[in-house]
């Protein structure tokens, strides 16, 4: 919440003692050392005290120590660039004695010649340099405690502004809660002590939500209405800092060129409560507002409590760096990614309680992201923080992550193109110094906990195509066996035949996403959602493909809620609540509640995009439901749905399973197109269950695997598929009578079968019966209290018994 912490446990107070002059030389007593327009140098072994505002310098290079006088207000250092190198030290306050007076570094290249590698308008450290900047501590953000109407001048905060150390004159920002434009405001008065109110100028430019928002829904299915409250409140961020790194405004300029900062080498940067503004130098990669560059293991690298304001590039980049802390920072208007974890080998960094807000409305129909080549000029991006820094189809997100094994805890992202985007596919073999040394799609995730995504144009939490596996890593995060063809980077199973997925599975926990278009991913394996709450998103969950867990867990989503009860007019008719994956596996949900109107699809739709480009297949996925509550879903809408935006098989082959009342007391529900199950004693159901057939016995998937080269026509005969006339119309195409269609890109056929029964398989293989067959999943018999599940399959070559435990 209000992030005002002592980070002493990071041992950052164990600063390296400076070996030099016994007492510093006052710069004001040496006015001739550095004339206006000169390339000024603080020599090694010398210790200077900045106690005046020197004339504008072409550059300042610090090889000794430059210490800022904490007792003098409004000092300003103006230079084309400031470089700390060798064993140099720049110190502006310390953790125990922070800089409470205004201290400004103004970077302007009017008189500077560019540095050969770092360019101009920068503050940077290299070699064994140390940059220590500690501004006045304050709580960097809180939430609105009550709604604010457009035109109001008094707002109430969740916490006392005095406790947060907020002051009259501070500039604050309020996040949108309706995907619209917002703006900064100035605090002109604090309310009476204990009131938690402040007065702002100008008056509120929009309506903002605050406090806990009650959600009430009468579904018509239950005598008890749904009534719960959720903290859907605007973030209020403080943009004021006593230490300021600034330069000429660049947001509206032709070239967008601002300043940049960077730390590289074997020293460290510890920057706390610093404002970095007018930063970013597109299209140059590496010219970011705050940047840890190839620091390797750096537990003394800290970015805490800072405010990054108006960036035309990335706000904060952690690149080739491990064990750094990025916490409590505010990023206000970062035109590209807010936080970028760059190469793929980054490990064990902590990103905690950062807040990222774009004040500009993201266009509802966005032709962006945009990048217009070498010039970096792309005026349209100013409309919505949508500058594509790589000109590669968009690397846009509050957090854009290639290095996966890091912790992301209680961060908040508002009004960006995407909230979190974990995109290993952007650089599947790594990037830069990690190229060819990692496989980001398969790197294990760190802790992902308590994050909030709201009012983002596309995705909230976006895990894209992540499939974490067990991988050996060296101290620099590289995969140790990357050159071995049997590495888990390249194989779903180990040489011993075991699943290579990470054990235990990675977890996304306590996620709150609201007012986004999507939440979820395309392909996600060995990751489960725990205590996820999605409210009034266009799609509460978007998921195309997965598999069973390597750790043998059953449930992909637990203790979660999908709610669609629109308030304020957003997404009043969603395209569907939970659009789930397909594939030959069991997809499990436990203690999941669905609330409100699911719109055009079911509350829970199986087989999204099945067999249709990048999605799962075959389509005979088993959905296992336990303690799934549909009682608050609007009456006269579908609770489940077979297939959504899928190939025809997606509407025929999925099956829903339960041992409790999640399916209205049925153990299995099959598609309405499998009318042969009516003869087996199944019951025709209504719209609630997508007009499927409810069965009081188990129905399981049966999958045949064979290369396309030998695939021919296949006919499955037996219970559920005999005694009915083939329906050759869409979407059955004979599937109701057991005619199986080949899943071309998935190397097999999908079917269903009843355990304990006998089936006959007739096939015309083109080059012989090269086929593998598997039946159900090994965990299900024990789950349902059965000794085992088996089915007998007769072929022209003889009979075999298939067991789910094999």
In short:
This protein is mainly β.
Provide a descriptive summary of the structure in words.
The chain is mainly β and 806 residues long. Among the domains are: 8-134, no CATH class; 141-238; 707-803, no CATH class. It has a 32-stranded mixed sheet that branches. A twelve-stranded parallel sheet has the order 2-4-7-10-21-24-27-30-33-36-39-42, with no helix packed on it. β64 (790-795) and β65 form a beta hairpin. The protein is elongated. The protein starts with 24 loop residues before the first strand and ends with a strand. Mean pLDDT is 93; it is low at 3-15.
Name some characteristics of this structure.
806 residues; mainly beta; 32-stranded mixed β-sheet; 1 helix; 36% strand
Helix content: under 10%
Shape, principal axes of CA atoms: elongated
- Rg, nearest Å: 30 Å
Total helix count? 1
Q: Tell me which oligomeric state these chains represent.
A: single chain
| Mean pLDDT value | 93
Q: Report how far apart the termini are.
A: 50 Å
Query: How many E strands?
Result: 65
The share of residues in extended strands comes to: 35-45%
Structural class: mainly beta
Low-confidence region ranges: 3-15
What does the main sheet amount to? 32 strands, mixed
């Amino acid at each position: 919440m209000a992030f005002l912490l002592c980070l002493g446990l990071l041992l950052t107070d164990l600063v390296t003692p400076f070996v030099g002059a016994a007492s510093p030389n006052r710069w004001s007593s040496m006015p001739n050392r550095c004339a206006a327009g000169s390339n000024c140098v603080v020599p090694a072994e010398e210790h200077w005290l900045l106690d005046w505002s020197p004339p504008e310098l072409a550059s300042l290079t610090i090889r000794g120590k430059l210490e800022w006088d904490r007792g003098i207000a409004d000092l300003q250092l103006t230079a084309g660039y400031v470089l700390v190198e060798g064993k140099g030290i720049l110190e502006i306050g310390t953790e125990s004695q922070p800089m409470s007076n205004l201290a400004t570094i103004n970077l302007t290249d009017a008189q500077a010649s560019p540095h050969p590698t770092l360019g101009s308008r920068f503050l940077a450290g290299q070699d064994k340099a140390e940059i220590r900047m500690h501004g006045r501590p304050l709580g960097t953000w809180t939430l609105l405690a009550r709604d604010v109407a457009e035109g109001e001048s008094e707002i109430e905060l969740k916490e006392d502004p005095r406790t947060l150390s907020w002051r009259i004159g501070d500039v604050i920002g309020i996040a949108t809660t309706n995907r619209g434009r917002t703006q900064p405001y100035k605090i002109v008065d604090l309310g009476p002590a204990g009131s938690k109110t402040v007065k702002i100028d100008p008056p509120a430019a929009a309506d903002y939500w605050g406090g806990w928002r009650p959600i009430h829904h009468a579904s018509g299915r239950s005598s008890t209405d749904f009534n719960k409250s959720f903290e859907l409140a605007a973030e209020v961020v403080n943009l004021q800092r006593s230490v300021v790194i600034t330069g000429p405004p660049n947001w509206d300029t032709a070239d967008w060129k601002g300043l940049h900062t960077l730390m590289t080498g074997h020293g460290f940067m510890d920057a706390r409560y610093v404002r970095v503004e007018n930063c970013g130098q597109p299209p140059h990669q590496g010219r970011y507002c705050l940047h840890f560059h190839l620091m390797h293991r750096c537990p003394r690298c800290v970015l805490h409590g800072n405010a990054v304001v108006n960036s035309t590039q990335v706000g904060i980049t952690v690149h080739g760096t491990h064990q750094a802390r990025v916490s409590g920072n505010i990023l206000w208007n970062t035109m590209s990614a807010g936080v970028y974890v760059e190469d793929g080998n980054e490990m064990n960094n902590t990103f905690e309680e950062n807040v990222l807000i774009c004040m500009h409305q993201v266009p509802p129909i966005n032709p962006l992201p945009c990048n217009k080549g070498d010039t970096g000029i792309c005026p349209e991006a100013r409309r919505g923080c949508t500058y594509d820094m790589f000109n590669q189809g968009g690397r846009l997100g509050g957090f854009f992550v290639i290095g996966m094994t890091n912790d992301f805890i209680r961060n908040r992202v508002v009004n960006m193109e995407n909230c979190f985007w974990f995109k290993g596919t952007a650089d599947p073999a790594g990037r830069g110094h990690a190229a060819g040394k990692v496989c980001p799609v398969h790197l294990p995730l760190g802790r992902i906990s308590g994050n909030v995504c709201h009012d983002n144009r596309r995705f909230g939490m976006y895990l894209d195509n992540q499939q974490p596996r067990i991988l050996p890593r060296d101290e620099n995060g590289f995969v140790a066996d990357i050159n071995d063809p049997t590495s888990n980077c390249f194989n779903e199973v180990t040489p011993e035949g075991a699943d290579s997925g990470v054990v235990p599975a990675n977890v996304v926990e306590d996620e709150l996403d609201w007012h986004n278009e999507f939440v979820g991913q395309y392909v996600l394996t060995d990751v489960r959602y725990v205590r996820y709450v999605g409210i009034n998103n266009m799609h509460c969950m978007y998921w195309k493909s997965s598999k069973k867990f390597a750790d043998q867990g059953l449930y992909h989503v637990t203790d979660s809620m999908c709610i669609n009860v629109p308030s304020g007019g957003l997404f009043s008719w969603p395209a569907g609540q939970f659009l789930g994956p397909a594939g030959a596996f069991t997809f499990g949900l436990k203690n999941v509640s669905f609330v409100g109107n699911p719109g055009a699809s079911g509350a829970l739709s199986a087989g999204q995009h099945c067999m249709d480009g990048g999605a799962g297949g075959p389509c005979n996925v088993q959905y296992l439901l336990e303690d799934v509550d549909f009682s608050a879903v609007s009456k006269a809408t579908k609770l489940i749905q077979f297939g959504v935006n899928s190939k025809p098989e997606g509407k025929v082959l999925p099956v829903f399973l339960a041992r409790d009342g999640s399916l209205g007391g049925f153990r299995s529900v099959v598609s309405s197109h499998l009318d042969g199950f009516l003869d087996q004693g199944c019951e025709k159901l209504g719209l609630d269950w997508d007009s499927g057939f409810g069965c009081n016995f188990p129905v399981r998937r049966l999958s045949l695997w064979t290369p396309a080269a030998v695939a021919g026509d296949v006919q499955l005969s037996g219970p559920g598929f005999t005694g009915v006339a083939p329906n050759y119309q869409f979407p059955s195409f004979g599937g109701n009578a057991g005619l199986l269609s080949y899943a071309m890109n998935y190397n097999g056929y999908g079917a269903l079968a009843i355990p304990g029964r006998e089936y006959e398989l007739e096939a015309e293989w083109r080059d012989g019966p090269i086929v593998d067959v598997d039946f159900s999943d090994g965990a299900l018999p024990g789950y349902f209290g059965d000794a085992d599940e088996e089915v007998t399959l007769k072929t022209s070559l003889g009979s075999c018994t298939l067991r789910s435990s094999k």
